[in-house]
Write a structure and sequence with these properties.
The chain is α/β, with parallel strands linked by helices and 505 residues long. Helix content is 45%, strand content 14%. The structure holds iron/sulfur cluster.
Amino acid sequence: MNFLDGKSAPAREDRLHASIAFGGICSQVKTCERARAAGCTNRSNRLFSQAQGCQFTLSLAILNSLRNAVIIMHGPIGCGICSTGNIGQNKAFKQIRDPGSEGLIWLSTNLDEPDVIGGGEQKLREAVIYADREFRPETIIVCNGCVPALIGDDIDTILSDMQTQTAATIMPIHCEGFKTKIMATAYDAVYHGILKNYIRHPDRRLPLWESDTDTFKAEYRRSRNVNILNVGSMSYSDEVELRRLLEGLGLNVSFIPCYAEPEDFQYALETSLNVSICGTHDDYFVGHLQEKYRIPFLVDTIPIGRKNTSIWIQKIAAHFDRGEEADRLIAAENAVLDDALEPYRKTLAGKRVYLAGGEVRILATAEVIQDLGMEVVGFKAHHYDQFAEPVFAALENIDQVEFSVATNQPFEMSNILTKLKPDVLITHVGGNNIAARHGLPLLPLFGPTYNYCGYSGVFEIARRLNKTVRNYEFNRQLSINTPLPFKKTWYEKDPFSYIKYAETV
Ligand code: SF4
């Protein structure tokens, strides 16, 4: 893998043959994914699409969290306006890491009709100078939207010319929404910018990494530095839990990229292992670090659910020759957790659950659901690619369970929910609107202040599910008083009527 000579990261439709449209069961999606290069799920699409996402907005999940930075949204005022929704939370989470940290600072170049004709260069130059003089950040991040890309603003040349006029490092991010239907391409777009602009001191990598000899490899492992690639949907409590577990093995843990300072990325090379929390998020970054600096990486399961957490710990421990310590830690944690879960199993056992959100996260959370004696009746994944496969392994009797692939598409989800009639929904925060109007108990798939990862995360999911199923009166009242927005005839149709596979697209 080496895409760094290019201006931007390739779309995941091309790089990973990922899919955004599928309706069937788990065994089918796994088979199709394995045949993705032949186009099975990769080239499927919809004849009608509703509320499709944009990679520009998802890029901000990482970028907004970076400390000591100003974000410039280069585009019309609407691009990135979602940032207003997490200003308070963003400031609080930055200040947990550094009490002196500023909150989120973002500007828009506010392109309008005359700029579409005359170009957005002048506004971009003014915004960069203003950001540098007014806020004195370490970094100015410029997110490029569809409009400047379509009218041909050459932001790389403009920004490279401006670098001599600013104290801040300028980092262009090519995250134009129209370039991909797979929102997760956003992560590659951000890492592309980070790899090209933040990783600038290769001398910081551990010198022993130059050699291939067994002695040197053993020395390198003994350094015990491990980077954990955190994700925007993780909370600080999740980081505390994962740090607790890995420090229990004697490792030195650093978290990047979310809530990191630009300087933290320089130290990123002083590690002997990069560990992904979620393959969907990080493979582009860790793949390039291996290719360029020969730093090994682990992209496997996600530490949500106790089987997944145990596998994740064992694989990290194996790299550092600490397998026996890991086995002891895992046994002790499981014994405590078993006792703690017992009261909740009594309330939750037998309830039917539907999960919607990121592919890796929904499959991992389903492991917790099965652990609690609940039944998984269906999944809806934002997209589908190879990173789902290791997470399937922790699930039992899952092959015949319904599986759909849809980025948002609330009309499909509403139809599915009416047919499957689950008792509980676990869904992405952005999907709560239509989901809540079905009047069911609902647990957000992630929450910025809640713990989902590690063994304590399993307990927290159980505790909160128990509370949710016992009182969901708000959603019940919503379903009584706010009718669903789709016609009755839609509910009589197959929810996947608008999906077209490769041969018919
Ligand atoms: S799709 Fe394009 S125009 Fe729309 S928000 Fe995303 S970047 Fe902006």
